[in-house]
Amino acid sequence: MHAWPASEVPALPGKGRDLEIHDTATQGTITLAPGPVARIYVCGITPYDATHIGHAATYNAFDLVQRVWLDTKRQVHYVQNVTDVDDPLLERALRDGQDWTELAERETALFREDMTALRMLPPQHYIGAVEAIPGIVPLVERLRDAGAAYELDGDVYFSVESDPHFGGVSNLDAEAMRLLSAERGGDPDRPGKKNPLDPMLWMAARPGEPSWDGGSLGRGRPGWHIECVAIALDHLGMGFDIQGGGSDLAFPHHEMGASHAQALTGEFPMAQAYVHAGMVALNGEKMSKSKGNLVFVSALRRAGVDPAAIRLALLSHHYRADWEWTDEVLADAVARLERWRAAVSRPDGLPADALVEEVREALANDLDAPAALAAVDRWVERQIATDGDDESAPGLVSRTVDALLGVAL
Ligand code: 5CA
Ligand code: ZN
To answer: Which of 23, 41, 43, 24 is nearest to 32 (CA)?
Structure first.
């Protein structure tokens, strides 16, 4: 699949420091020291009800990761998927009487537009589940042949017991895992499974549903977790730097994915850090497709909201916090954008070299975007109140805000 166009990232004087980031697996903050090419996999959308503010907030967090790494003068190798075939997508298409491929294509196109408008840097590889099927089938066959997977009425399940590290991403107890498995696409109550938590790797063709040639697996379609593993291993290999997504993906998705990859390769860990963004809520409840309490980026854009203001609204919350989208959050961001633009549109101003370092430091410290905004706010207030004579300052502030925060002033 094609991704979306990259906005330019201005070069800044000097260079940033290595990213410290909270890792769900070790439950602490670690300093990542990638090689010259940093590698990140971020779980993409299931293309319906795209792009809501919750999605945008999560992709914003990982866009900041890219920007911090680029500022350390590294290259970034970024891979993202599109879950363009899965139960929820097929259910939605059936509910609305539309063709599932058309739904997926339309929503993916909308997502690309929203990402472009928000200045999110694109992945180098943007891969759909359907196009990944030829790579998924041999992985499932290998797991089965190695005894890490088994068949149940034509479906193939992964045996969680085949990975000695299973459980190490999300650190949950058995009961919590069982509950979340039932909530998030698993089938812990299906009779005949070796372990209730075992997830499906390959689903045998069902009447009326799309299916593909699965070689020795028979016709069918891939399970959710193996999709991301196949794409990540194909384009990044084992031991990549960050596996990212919203906190609702820690279990089962990232837990199972790590186990699939570790059972396949015998290597550990799949990723150096498992990084999870908090959940955005609306009216007191997590913004979710199933509840339908969604605010869409495209609807805000149509209503005339500047995408830079949407981006500033996302940045005003720490990525790991759960937070609530309100009219006030947006109004504050609109006002901030106006203040910042007024400050940088003056012909000269207060020196900004220290500000560059403050923004860098805030982001390197577990992506503390609110602290970065506060630093810019302080410069903006002084800039408006004082008569500076540094002609290069307004330009430097614009470039800093663009390069590190993805906001064009
Ligand atoms: N296709 C899978 C991942 S392989 C999937 O979870 N798709 S999704 O469309 O449901 O979600 C896309 C991303 O948005 C995921 O990282 C998910 O954790 C995140 N997300 C979904 N809802 C919210 C929310 N309310 N707040 C923050 N992030 C969210
Ligand atoms: Zn995924």
So the answer is: 23
337 alpha carbon – ligand 1 mean position (Å) = 27
Ligand 1 pocket residues where CB is under 6 Å: 43-46, 54-55, 57-58, 81, 83, 228, 245-246, 248-249, 277, 279-280, 286-288
pLDDT in tens, 256-303: 999 999 999 999 999 999 999 999 999 999 999 889 899 999 999 999
Give me 381's structure tokens.
């207030």
Q: Tell me how many helices (H) and strands (E) the chain has.
A: 13, 14
Tell me the pLDDT tens digit for each residue of 14-42. Answer: 999 999 999 999 999 999 999 999 999 99
Ligand nearest to the CA of 59: 1
The two beta strands, 125-128 and 149-152, are unpaired
Amino acid at 19: L
* C-beta neighbour count of 283 within 10 angstroms: 10
Phi, psi of 44 (to 5 degrees): -90, -175
Between CA 9 and CA 68 the distance in angstroms is: 11
